[in-house]
Amino acid sequence: LTSKLPNTKTTIFTVMSKLAQEHQAINLSQGFPGFEVDPQLIELVNQAMKKGYNQYAPMPGLPSLREVLAEKVERLYQKTYHPESEITITAGATQAIFTAIAATIRPGDEVIVFKPAYDCYEPSIEVFGGKVVPIQLKAPEFLPDWDEISAKITSKTKMIIINSPHNPSGTVWTKEDMVQLEKLLKNTDILLLSDEVYEHIIFDGKKHHSASRFAGLAERAFITASFGKTFHATGWKTGYCLAPATLMKEFRKVHQFNVFCSNHPIQAALAEYLLKPEHYETLPNFYQQKRDLFLSLLNGSKFTFTPSSGTYFQLLDYSKITDEDDVAFAERLTTAHKIASIPTSVFNLNQQDNKLLRFCFAKTDDTLKKAAEILQAI
Ligand code: PMP
Ligand code: GLN
User: Fold this and answer.
1) I want to staple 362 with a disulfide (CB 3.0 to 4.6 A). Which of 6, 33, 66, 111 is the partner?
2) What is the predicted ipTM?
3) Is 1 within a domain?
4) Which one, of 213, 181, 166, 202, lies nearest residue 112 by Cα?
């Protein structure tokens, strides 16, 4: 068999979590919360199972969940998505991203991807014959250079993928960035995939500028989101996609054959749980305290950093410690020092100018204290 993805290896999240387990290291590599889901939400899932939500859900998702999402998006971002035709519940954001790409990208189409980028974008494009057009973002700001983006657009550009708050840098796009993007895409047929899985994990009073807020972006955008991030339930693999009806129609043609529907009892539970906005409005504060604790404990260490503005990740610069490449150093930290992180080269961050590892701070205060103790000693 000739591989369709000759350059794709096993995802780093699998590799590092396995290494962490083998060496009994504190695992700040793969991004997942180290604390439990709200017992109230667990109880709602139990009840949904008892009430019989155990067979296939409707293909686009449970109507009550789509309705509550439509209300939430309208309240937060002042944009109306019709639950019937413009919202689909997916098996996590990963499936939403893959489906949006599968439904739109043909061989030879170019897709602009900012690097460093979350690792699922590139293979999803390539498996359908699309060509990734990378744009390197520069540390520590990781913000777009509009002249460079403009220069990369060709007649073959089919899609541009953005991700704010940004994994792995924690950068948050400003309103001005979104306005610039809107201007750039005006009068083009270029689609937008806006990966907004960290929409509720945002710090220092910053605001999430969803693509849905900008008419010129929303009209061409697939917006992907994940309940896993918002409700500490990454293993539930439940998310959703928002898109205008014409795009959603194509999305669902693929969705119905790559998963058909997502987990039914969890959708039923979420439909009720989402009725209370405090279930996600408390997140910025919750995670900002985690970030601040982790960073305060790292003061005086040899690691340097720019505080993350969103997501539950923090990049740490180790250039004062070693010349090793990031993969070698991340492995050594795991095996010898018992702390696992993610090397940023796997997100295709230019390694000539950067010595950065990504650490997940979605952990108990106790775990963060133990992790910081190790990092202080290096
Ligand atoms: N996009 C980004 C930027 C992510 O960080 C993640 C998960 N870490 C996903 C998408 C996938 O989300 P899910 O787990 O809901 O598939
Ligand atoms: N999104 C998570 C991260 O960035 C991991 C998701 C996964 O393991 N596929 O760490």
Assistant:
1) 33
2) 0.98
3) no
4) 181
